[in-house]
Amino acid sequence: QVQLVESGGGLVQPGGSLRLSCAASGFTLDYYVKGWFRQAPGKEREFVAAISWSSVGIYYADSVKGRFTISRDNAKDTVYLQMNSLKPEDTAIYYCAAKRARLTTTEDYDYWGQGTQVTVSS
Question: SS3 for 90?
Answer without folding.
Answer: helix
